[in-house]
# Entry
Amino acid sequence: MRLIEFIKSEIENGVTKLENSKAIYEQVGNCKIVIGNEEFAINATNAEDKVSELRIVKAGKYEVKLMTESGNTISMFVVTKKDPLNAFSIILIVVGSIVLIAGGIIFYRLRINMKIK
# Structure
């Protein structure tokens, strides 16, 4: 089902899902999208031909399910959202890189200045 592949690629690439609920309703009928503990029902009354946004904000593992009203799973996959590096991690990486480069330069300079008799 191409629709499920579209949902999966949009979530994995941007961790934001752009959803055309009318297209989903036309292909599946009354259903719901479950992301983590949140449910988004799609039926004849709320199926719109516009794009709406569902966001995953907090870091963690999320099961994304497309389910029928009766609870049968049509499609399911897991998305892992990771937090970007914080300032402390970035500073540690930069300082470690500088120390490693300085150590290499010192080793190189000492090696050149050594005289073998």
Observations:
- The chain has two domains: 2-81, 84-117.
- The beta strands are 16-20, 31-35, 38-42, 51-55, 60-68, 73-81.
- The chain has a mean pLDDT of 76.
- The first strand starts at residue 16 and ends at 20.
